[in-house]
Amino acid sequence: MSATDNVTEPSIGWPFIVMLGVTAAISPFAASIHIQSIPAIANDLQTDYSSAQLTVSLFLFTFAFAQLFVGPLSDRLGRRPVLFGGLIIFGIGSLAAAAAPTIEIMIAARMLQAAGGCASLVTPRAVVRDRLSGVEAARVLALVSILQSSAPIFSPIIGGVLDIVFGWNAIFIFLAIYALAIGLLSWFRLPESRPTEGGSVASVTTILSRYRALLGNVRFLAYAAVFALGTTGYFGFLASGPAVLIEDMGLAPWQFSVILGTISIQFVISGYLASRLVLRMGINKVLLIGALLQAMATAGFWMAVQEPTAIGVTLTMCVYTFSNGLIFANSLAGATAVDPRIAGSASSMLGSLQFAVGGIVALMVASLPMHNFGSFPLILMALAFGTLLAVLVAMASAQDRR
Q1: How many domains, the chain?
Q2: CA distance linking residue 37 with residue 52, whole number of Å
Q3: Which candidate among 141, 180, 300, 355 keeps its CA 20 to 30 Å from the CA of 380?
């Protein structure tokens, strides 16, 4: 049995898992809460849809870049100070976005949100790896990801209601309040869990040397590729969905919110299923199932958009997102198991890769013609092929270690 299949620590309780989940949900919540309001934001700030959509793609790019620093900082300074600093920055960015008079200031505020919000995603993953290992870590990460991934289900609905009742500015005020609530909860309930060596914290040089070692580890790179390629197609749908379903097909923003919620909930369902399957099948077998299902879903989506209907798009994207839930926590657990001493650095590298790929996908989709989703189906199929190939490499590297 490989190292990624061992259980070496007892589990942690549900209240703590819930706290980690709602903390990790802040950034996914912020990424998609204003999606249905992008046409209104573009109109109010006197810009076009493509420019307003940069509030999504540049958010993702900033999120990716900032994580490269947040993970090592959490390994050096501790989980708590990095989390609280990030929440403060996120809150400032949220208030700036609410008051933005131009699209340029709105984009800058969203980038500030992303820079701070990435700490709320890196920290919970690192805390799980601090306390657990093997399939138990995969199980808890899957449960945390269920709560985290619930954010895209409810965020467009909450954002839509706030937009209708108070205007789109209220969306960002809500995010600032969310960050404040999480900060208060974490202050009282989140103890420091950063590992130490011989009673002292590892030096920056030691941490960076391990960081470099991760980049030379085939097993880590394989799991990282699975994570980055297998969970980012959804961002392309966020970029193209409003333009196709709202502007071209004539759906109301609230109808798009319902579709987005229906698609997103599949991640929650499959995340729970993954938390059960991994205990019986191990990480790699669950990943293989997820990758094969994803390949079939992307082929189905390509056929559905030849003559797109709301039902066809929704059904095929539901299957695709279901496969994401099988891949997410297991690839994360496999990658961070390579060196648990730097779980924060490993988690930040994974998150950086994921959001960098997601940002590229969103930017490519938004920049090209979107008739019948344009290039998105082919991009989705390429991601699925890469995911399957990376899973096979991860399985081969696990065999080499036996």
Answers
A1: 1
A2: 10
A3: 141
